[in-house]
Write a structure and sequence with these properties.
By secondary structure, the chain is α/β, with parallel strands linked by helices. Helix content is 33%, strand content 15%. Strands 1, 2, 3, 4, 5, 6 and 7 form a seven-stranded mixed β-sheet that branches. The protein has a two-stranded antiparallel ribbon with strand order 8-9. Strand 3 and strand 4 form a beta hairpin. It is globular. The termini are far apart.
Amino acid sequence: MSETEPAAFVDLTDLPLIVAGALQPINVASLCTPDSPQHPPRILILYGSLRKESYSRLSAEEGSRVLIALGCDVQFYDPTGLGLPDDPTANPDKVQELRDLVMWSEGMVWSSPERHGAMTGVMKTQIDHIPLSPIGGIRPTQGKTLAVMQVCGGSQSFNTVNQLRILGRWMRMLTIPNQSSVPAAYNKFENGRMIAGSHYDRIVDVMEELVRFTIMTRGRPALTDRYSERVETLEQVNKRVSKL
């Protein structure tokens, strides 16, 4: 996608599992008005594992290939070395990198393993480093789109995506209806790529839906404009939120 024109076709070079002709270019004109932003949708991907062979990252990488094919500008954040919130040994450069990427993004993908029936600490730590209070007068996540994904070591579960949805709501994000949960992830990949099947197809569905919702909602601050914030000063907001 150029700065002004939607992609005329979907490049399947790096998408060998996609059925030719089934993944259609996004019809931008049908989703937004002429005065809406026309640049490629900016999507940030967070994943919740530091393992060398991280299935949550591999799943997110499969999603990123679809996003790129649909004309998105995609960035990953590597959580290695981030450190815990409020820990004086946390890496300030990693924290700033994360916050800069969040500010840059118009939509996000959160992909986490399920460990002990919940999202990982790595995933939650990244989200905890993203402030609710405004940065330069702008809330980093408010009104932005979100897609949630999880991978399971055994049978399929939805605990983690449900938790991620709660966090997305808390961060004032617009979480799309679709989601991905990959059971027994260890046998869904070969040589770093996902094998064909319904779980791959669902990831494609999720990414396609995320692009559509991002195009429809970005650049529309009125969607999340709140009366309570219009009567509350910026100083009052920072004082209230900084105590959380």
